[in-house]
Amino acid sequence: MSSVEMTTAAPAGPPDLDAPVWRKAARAHGLDGALTARTVETMRRVAATRPEGTFWTLNVEPHLLVAPEVRDLLLAPRRLDEMVVELTEHVGYGEDPALADVMAAIRAVGGSIAMDDAGTGYSGLTQMLAVRPDIVKADRSLVSGLDQDPVRRAAVRLLGDLSGQMDAWLLAEGVETLAELAELAALGVPLVQGWAVGRPGPGWPDLD
Question: Which residue, 27, 95, 19, is CA-closest to 64?
Fold first, then answer.
């Protein structure tokens, strides 16, 4: 799996700030749709160079997925094979017919839907059942230290069982130690991301 997050520079601060800082600033100025659209454009170019057998992911707040400037770029006349749209769970969106239509259109051209930060945020279980994501991302708050915490292990196991019932993949976020990685493997979690398997870097680095 490969996940890349891109931002665009703005006059509010130095360009090396974290992506959440830029998203917050864009939202404050009413430019979050424009920033997300620019990110989609950039990601399409970057994804064209990715190695075979990988997929690329894009974090999108649910209300921006239906914004015309974002929706039209995503659903341009090109397939979205191996592309995953991650819906952040920190924003509530209910059962929006327009959002459901866009998600159906993304899936119709080969894309997938992920629920980001599962297990935290706003009405997480209700949203998960409404979206029926293709990938459920277990938040780092559930993963960190699970090799020493039976309650966290139980929570990840339950999330995995629910994902299986939805025919979705479970992906563990923020895996930073080999002990966490080994415990997740023992639990049968199929996908992971985090420093234990690879740190962010330019291009498409190979995994050991």
Answer: 27
